[in-house]
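Hello Y.,

Per our agreement to keep a running log of every chain we model this quarter, I'm adding this entry. I've kept the format consistent with earlier entries: sequence first, then predicted structure.
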Amino acid sequence: MKNNRSRWYALLLVVLSIMTPSVAQNTKYVNLFIGTSGDNGQVAPGAAAPFGMVCVCPDNDPRSHAGYDYAVTKVSGISVNRLSGVGCSGGGGNLRIRPVAPSQELHIKKSREKATPGYYSTAFTNGIKTELTATNAMAVERYKFPRSLSAALWIDFASTFEDVATCHSKRISETCIEGYVQAKNVCGHGCYKLYFSLNTSQPFQLEEQKETTACLTFGKKVRSVEVRIGLSALSSELASWECARWEKMDFEDVKSRTADQWEKQLSAIDVKGGKKDDRVIFYTSLYRTYLSPADVSSPDGAYLGTDGKVYISEDFRYYSNWSLWDTFRTKFPLLVLTEPAKMRDMATSLIHLYATGKKDWSTGFESTPTVRTEHAVILLLDAYRKGITNLDFRKGYAGMKQEMERLRRDVARSGWSREKYLRALIEHSVIKEMPSMDLVAVLRNLQQINNNINQIGLVANAKGFIDTAAYWENVDWLKKTIHELLEVMYGSWQ
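Predicted structure for the entry above:
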C-alpha cells in the first residue's frame, strides 16, 4: 500500500511538471550594479518593470548621466525616471524626494545597498531606510524613519537631469498632490511632459511650500511612510488612476508582481553551460535590453503624438523613450527575435512617429525622455525582413520620404560628402550651410588683409614709425572681428 502511494505521488509530480511551465530563474544572475561606477555605461540599478516609464533610483551628488554612481555615497534624493546609456546630461530625474532637509547631507550606507530586477533598497547613514519598486507607470517608495528623526519628505517638483520648462503642483487631499512637469530632453533638444499623482500612505501637513518645492511632515508618531507616484503622458487623472488600479496590492505584492514579470521576460533565452560569471554578464545585459523603449499608452490605448495631439490606438501599444543610436543594429534585431509581438507595437509606434512629426532629435511633444531616431527606417526594414510584416508603412511613408529628402538636401548644402556629414552628426557637430563662393572670396580677402596688416606692423615697429601699443590694439580688434566672421559663416563647415 505504501509503495502504491509512493508511485501515485511520483506520477502526480510528473503530471504537475508537465502542466506547469518551468521558469528558468534567470533573474538571480542579474547584477544591477555592473557598469554603474564612473562614466562607463551611464546605467543605474533602479527599480523598473520591463519596458516601463518608471525607473526609480537614488541620484548621486554629483550625479552621472543616469543619476547614479556606485562609487559616490552622497545622494541628492530619489527620482522616478531616467534614460540610461546616453551621453550629454542623460534624461529624467523628475519628482525627486529627500527624506531629510536640503541643508543636510544624505549618504548611502553601501553595506546595506541591494538591487534586484524590480526592487532596490538601502539604508542611509542617518538611520533612514528606503525600499523602491515599480509598475509600468507607478513608482512605489517606502521610507522607514528611526525614532531619533521625525518623518518628513522634501519634494522637488522641478528636478531634472536637463532643464525644466514648466512645472505645476496642487494639493488634492490630505494624502495627494497632483500636477505636471515639462522638461527638456537629452542634450537639450525638444521637451517631454509628465503628469503625476503623488499619494502618501499617511496624511501629511504641507510645510515650507515654494513654487517648485514642498515639505511633507507626518507627525511624531509616524515611523513609516509609503509614497506612490503615478505617471501619465496625458493627464493627472490618468496618473491618479494608475495608483488607484494597484491600491489593493501592498508593497510586497507590487514587488513580487514585477519580479515575476522580469522572470518571465528573462526566460526568453535560457543559457546552458559556461561559468556563472558569464551568465551574470549575459543576463545583466539582456535585462538592460528590456528597459526601453517604454510603453506610454493609457489603459484605453490613448497616446500623445509628436504633433501634440491625442490619438487612440485599438490594435497596438504606443512606445516612446527612444534611443536608436547603435541599438538599431544590436538591441532591436534581438527584440525582433525574442519579443516579436512587442516589436510589432514598437515598429508601429515608429511609423506613427513619422506620421505625426518625426525629427532627428526629439520633438517638443514627447511622452518620456528621448534621444535620436535617425535609424528608424533601418529598424523597420529589419523587422519586416524577419517576419513582422503586419505593418502599415503607408501611414508613415510620407514622413520617411521627407526625412531622406531633407538629409540629401542638408548634405548638399554643407558641401561635405555624405559619410563626413553623418560622422559629424554622430559627433554632435553643428553643421551649417556652405557659404557661397562670393562670400568665400570676401572672407579670404579679409584674411589676407589681416596678414598684410600684421606684416606692416612688424616692419613699422622695427623702424620706430608707430605708436606700438595703439597699433597692436587695433590689429587685435581686427583679428578678433575677422575670426568672429569666420566662426559665424563657416561654423563646423570650416
